[in-house]
Amino acid sequence: MKIFRFFFPTAVGLMLAMPTNGVAQLSEYQRFEVLKYLDTYNAVFNDLSLYYVDTLEIKKLNRNIAFLLQQHADPYSEYISEEEMPDFRFQTTGEYGGIGSIISMRNRQIIINTPYKGMPAADAGLIPGDAILAIDGESMEGKTTVDASEKLKGQPNTRVRLTIQRAGESQTRELSIVRKQIQIDPVSYYGVIKEGIGYIYLSSFTTHSAESFKTALLDLTEKRHIRSLVIDVRNNGGGVVENCLEILNYFLPKKELLLSMHGRIKQMDVEYHAEKEAIASDLPIAILVNENSASASEILSGTIQDLDRGVVIGNRTYGKGLVQATRPLPYNGKLKLTTAHYYLPSGRSIQAINYANRDENGRVSSIPDSLTQVFYTRNRRPVRDGCGVLPDLVIAEDTLPTILYYLDAQNLLFDFVVDWRIRHPAVKEPSQFTLTDEMYDEFKKYVQSKDFTYDRQSEKILNNLKQTMTFEGYYDAAAPEFQALAAKLKPDLTRDLEYHKAKIGKYLAMEIMQQYYFEQGSLVYSLRDDKALQEATRILSDNSLYNNILTNIKTDETK
Description:
4 domains, six-stranded antiparallel β-sheet, globular
């Protein structure tokens, strides 16, 4: 897993998965049309498989046809085959049988990337960078991560034998590991970040999220006696809606409207109200969000905002206001299908893209701000639909240099720490660790010793400008100035590594913390200079400022 996991998730997760109970009624004409096209599809598929000049891969063909659903519906509607059901269940439950580690491919080898704390892989002594040479005696040479994953997973309480090669060692190691039921805790970390202020990082909404969140919340309120709470759902792509609603009920009173859904068929229209008494009804809260907070994360933050129950801080969220339900298919597959829009208590939908409105090329675009409508929170604060959840206080996130993306993509941060760890068996804990100039100099020398290349945006823009100037006839007249500018922008790896030292150094330190203290260590280190978290603690430390924001009273602090 990339070290940018807290900042750059590659995709929005499962979103909302809910069963449908009603049966839609089709008119006689609609039923005829459906059956007609199903018969046509069967005939085309049969003729392709029998008479096409070359042999077709039936499974691949069926997958491609199913992919058309996404192109003509939305990215969240998809066909899930029987083979993909274990991964789908893992997304919704966070559970699977195995050794508890993320693996990746490096130099044509299967590599342990991130073992989970307290799981069999970590308990057996596996560390990041270990190369898996064989599983149960079968060589992994030429195998993919999918092949290895299938062999590593299995029924709990069964054994798997690994042959591994550790960096810096000449001899291989043999390990026998007992698989267990792996449950990824959706609460990646919680604790007290400042006197009286608690913090919970919620990474996903699985079937265990509410239970895990409640455990953390009760520990913080009853044993550590916090007076306010920060809930962090940045880069949380969503998940199971029921758990999101249960977490909301911890802070909102019984019978409070939390969410409503409306679909094309009447059976999908439903309202959700808090069903229990709140357990932290008066606890001041701040919720941290960013552009990768989606789906259930937006329900959590948006509902809290609409009911003026807490302050939302960070950046505008993703904008997914669609509901998916799973339907059973023949041969143990499922269809995940968008069946409704959801609406927050103010009545707004935060869906940012209208997939039903496509241009002549089938492309979709975000709803422009000028076409969004104003709704109002309980305290009459204005909020808008069609654009995700806009925080009460927007905190600009740091922009990262292009070179950092390439260092991560080419695994130089990860590989350096694997080598560095050989000479440094222990480091200080995340709250005390400091990346020294000597450590960073080691990293610079390491990068310079590798065949490292990276594209610079300034160089690309300059080349495009030259082509445009040449086409329009301006280049010859401006050639001396252009060449002088090009000379100043000449690639200089040493200069770039030093110029971006602060930002590269932070992510290098996060990688070090991850390899020594797992993902929790990397997160804890990253929070030490987190601007949004600092703003949240500032507001929660000032009751008048907190209340003024929620009652829409302008002060010097909130202008």
